[in-house]
User: Which sequence fits this backbone?
């Protein structure tokens, strides 16, 4: 596998080290394909992540958001029963899946149904960052001989 050396980038720009860290994290995350997931855009500022967690109960799953990082974990308790499988195709192993969230994206809801964990996300921009229109006031045209405010009569 080819690796990309980003050290020249660090020397020539300031503040882009986070971008390089995101690229490194994305490449290492791609190696693990378990559990499979979908990311869906449900509205202009709303998204849904669906993760296939067949065999997991709600109490065996965990969702945590910390500093724009959504972490979904699944922990199966140790099963001491001696089962004799003829074929074992269901992967009931522990997992941890991480998603880097953009700024101002929050988790609004999570639900488990039919083996799919659905996590709803919404982008909420602060009022200061939302576009706003500025009213343009027009001043009354000055006519010769009219006094401008603050000007003394001569």
Assistant:
């Amino acid at each position: 596998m080819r690796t990309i050396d980003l050290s020249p980038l660090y020397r020539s720009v300031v503040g882009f080290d986070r971008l390089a860290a995101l690229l490194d994290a994305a490449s290492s995350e791609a190696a693990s394909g378990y559990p499979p997931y979908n990311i869906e855009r449900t509205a202009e500022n709303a998204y849904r992540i669906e993760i296939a967690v067949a065999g997991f109960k709600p109490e065996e799953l965990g969702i945590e958001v910390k500093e724009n990082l959504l972490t979904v974990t699944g922990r199966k308790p140790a099963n001491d029963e001696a089962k004799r499988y003829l074929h074992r195709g269901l992967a009931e192993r522990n997992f941890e899946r991480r998603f880097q969230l953009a700024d101002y994206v929050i988790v609004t809801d999570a639900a488990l149904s039919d083996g799919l964990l659905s996590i709803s996300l919404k982008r909420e921009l602060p009022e200061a960052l939302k576009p706003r229109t500025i009213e343009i006031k027009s001043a009354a045209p000055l006519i010769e001989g009219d006094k401008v405010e603050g000007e003394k009569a001569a």
